[in-house]
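Late entry, evening session. Most of the bench is empty. Finally got around to the prediction I had been postponing all week. Sequence below, unchanged from the version circulated by S.P.
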Amino acid sequence: MTPLLRMPSAPFRTAVPLAGLLLAGAVLALPMAAAAQATSALPPAASAAPAAGEPASRIARVKLYPGSATVERVARVPAGARSLTFRCLPAGLDAQSLQVQADASVRVGETSVQVLDRAIAGGCASPLDERVRAAQDQLAAASAESDALELAHTYLKTVANTPPAVQASGPGTPGAGTINTTTETLRRSAQDTLVKLHQAQRRQEAAELALKALTTERDRIAGPAARVALVTVTLAAERDADVRLTYQVRGPSWSPSYRASLDTAAASVRLERLALVAQNTGEDWGGVQLTLSTGQPTRATSGRLPRPWTLDVEPPPQPVPPPAPAPAAASLQRLAAPVAPAPMAEAAEPLPSFDVAVAEGAYATEFAVPQRITVPSGGQRVTLALGQTDARAQLLSRTVPAQEEAAYLVAVLPAPAGVWPTAPVALYRDGAFVGSGQLDTAAIARTGLAFGRDERVRVRAEPARDATGSAGLTGARTERTQQRAYTVDNRHTAPIALQVLDAAPVSQNEQITVESRYDPAPADTAWNQQPGTVLWSQTLAAGASARFTASHTVRYPKDVRLQERR
């Protein structure tokens, strides 16, 4: 310290902080270098690389079904090649589904399949290894940045805590202005360092959580006991050519999903068709041409034939044979000897389960995704857009006052063309999300699609009035009468199409008679082909009110116990 104090070029109190600031700036530049060093120090990620001199294969196309997929791999073989091995394939592939195709210059021979543990297959890394490596790189960079900032902060603290006694005297002593400037610079540098340190620590924590999640998932789906398949094809290639291998694998799936957007001003509905894709085969689908199909290749290919139906006379009962004599000791020993259990087949890995809505029809429908799609293995769902359609809609307010004193906005629109399997739908009204429901395209033309409550329609249900008495000349029959009344107010500034639904009793026995009276007369007493479902339909002017009444009289013998279901 003493030589520094005697340097003529700069006083100690000025030179040390400025040098500290320069060093701190250099330290702040360390995170990128440290991160690069940490990245380079990591071992290279294992990949599904082929053996030395062996051509690599890639997934080119995937046709995805509900519960299975057909995968097409492509490999380039050089002229003179005599065999080709497709490595690191899913162990659960269907060996009977294997198909090999090649150019005319390649003669294809026999195909063999071998299933090995991933650890001894050679070059077969987990599909999550690359993502684990990326997470490790992010964690290393965040840790290096945090350490560098910690170092800078420690140095600035040391400079700030230098005792005042360690000062130079004489003409080189800094003035009050210089000291104040240096102190302010130190304060700003320390503040900036602390803020960056906090941010770096937050990034480090996030990177640790991400790495832990990926590592756990990798160990779950592709641990040491995971297995892979190797498919070896014997061939003779006259010149360089592509060889294609297709195989069927169970587990991957897709499920339809929809988004319905209602524009109340234009009275139109936009239906968007979506697909949720997920797979857990053990191999990533990176940049593949994806086709979605409603077919079911894993189902039976033919239906059952009728059983023979024969008639015959039952034979007379046979006499019961006398009991057999007691077995000998040797026989007893044989009977008592334990029976060796039959060898059990190795239990297959449980297949992932997906809630899939299957199109019921005579033919399958396919959706070709125009862009290349990446679907990682691990069960993460990927959402794909499959097109949209716009349709004019009839808007109405529908209420069921006996069940709920509320009205709902309903859009009745024609069923869209094509196959639209029943699936969940997200509902939007004038750009705002109102909830979710179930889209049944076969029913929307009859019952419509509801888009939430109509808060400008007030519904009131008056208390029901019941009366029970005797009927007939001798009073041998019971007569029960129930009266209901509902009031609906339109608080809109424009007329609305109003639908009021109610239930009426329906007799299923000739001993029970029902007489119903309505005011006003309903438009239908079997709405949506359901007997007993009463529909009032009318246009209700702005600010107007409407009242609906129903009276039901049920008569049945007194000795009959009425069974009523609602």
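Two things to note before I forget:
The first strand starts at residue 57 and ends at 65.
The radius of gyration is 40 Å.
Will write this up properly tomorrow.
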